[in-house]
Amino acid sequence: MPSWLNDRVFRTVLKNAGYLGSTKIVGAILGLGALVGAGRLLTSVEFGTLMLIHTYALGAGALTKFQSWQMILKFGARPYEQGNQNIVSKTIRFAMGLDISSGFLGMIAGMILLLTAGTSFGIGYQYTAIALLYCTLIPTMSSATPTGVLRLVGRFDLIARQQIVTPLLRGLGVLVAWLFGLGFSAFVLTWYIGDIAGDLVLWGMAIQELRKRNMLSSLRPSLREAPTHLPGVWSFVWLTNLNTTLDACWSPVGNLIVGGMLGPAAAGRYKISTTLLDSAIKPARFLEKGFYPEIMRLDPASHHPWRLSLRTGLLSAGIGLCIMLAILIGGKPLISLFGHKYSDASTLMMIMSPALVVSMAGFPLESLLYMAGQAKAVLGAQIVAVITYIIALVFLTLEFGLYGAGIAYVLGILLLNVLSLAPAIASYARRHTLASIER
């Protein structure tokens, strides 16, 4: 590790991850408090329905959204370093156009599907109206342009501060609901306000950074201008869009399938487990958010990005092993905070914990393959893994109930990382023949 710290880029990745992690710990505690409060104050069916409504909006947005932040960094990172504001502005304007069009498409499609098949996802008729209102969050929830802008200019400290907004407001909302004895609608409103406030704060920060750099004109959306100056941009955004759509199957869509098969109460237990695991995997998410901008600035023909990926992957895997042991030891006491009605969620979380280690160890693979121009390999791995996961989820849930859903998740995550590792090794073997990727 001391020798690894001689690598400036590695130190930058750790520094950016530190920014994000410093406030995310506070946010995680606040978010857990809000989740525990909702779990205790609502019935298991109401709590499960709240999670399903939130998950449905996330899933609808994820199925249509473009990873515009990845596009901004891939095509704008080097021009930004070189002072080419013209290309950077075109990249951001293109991202804006993608976010606006996909966000409103996702909202409309989500509302239509909710009206026609909401009960299939475990959302009862009596909750349709409030779920439709929640769908109006989709345009802001699926927008990634402000995140891309802040990562591009290196303002990870601002992203870190923004991470507290949503869990803080949720915690305050749950406290108010408890003090005044408010019901289910108040909890949905709390989640709604927390989400939209967090998104608006992020936009405000991005706008302020663009204003400082005299780049506010970058906020005019355009889908026609950038492609003529950024060769391959449409191919990249479609591949990442498809990859994001498939990625949504792991959590939002998977949760909806469990809700449709086992009911909202089981969906609530599944959501508790996946939420806590997602919180546990945050160190890898922090590393990834700092890793992607840096690796996109490196030459894939050199040793540097591959060595950086190996080091960050090993570091993340070590953290993951420690977290898995903590879950196996302390998972049951943690779940007990929600009340005895959710006790079986602790066993489910333990079953799913190996997926956490695999995900954390393999987090550099996607960024590495994008850098090496292997976006199709990322998509191919997702397609095979997601199809396998969905099939396994249905059959194992039918056979073993909620625990079967956990087993299916572990198998799917393992397959995804194995399928991503193979093309990464192949790309490394022919790294000397890789041309420098135009960004």
UniProtKB/TrEMBL annotation:
Spell out the coiled coil positions from the record.
none
Q: Does the keyword Transmembrane helix apply?
A: yes
Keyword Iron belongs to the record = no
| Keyword annotations from UniProtKB, A to Z | Cell membrane, Membrane, Transmembrane, Transmembrane helix
InterPro entries, alphabetized: Poly_Biosynth_Transport
Its annotated compartments are: Cell membrane
Q: Which organism is it from?
A: Zymomonas mobilis subsp. pomaceae (strain ATCC 29192 / DSM 22645 / JCM 10191 / CCUG 17912 / NBRC 13757 / NCIMB 11200 / NRRL B-4491 / Barker I)
Q: How does it sit in the membrane?
A: Multi-pass membrane protein
**GO cellular component terms, A-Z:** plasma membrane
- Residue ranges crossing the lipid bilayer per the database entry: 21-41, 47-64, 103-125, 131-152, 164-183, 314-335, 347-365, 377-396, 402-429
> Could you tell me what this protein is called?
Polysaccharide biosynthesis protein
PANTHER family per record: INNER MEMBRANE PROTEIN YGHQ, PST FAMILY PREDICTED COLANIC ACID TRANSPORTER
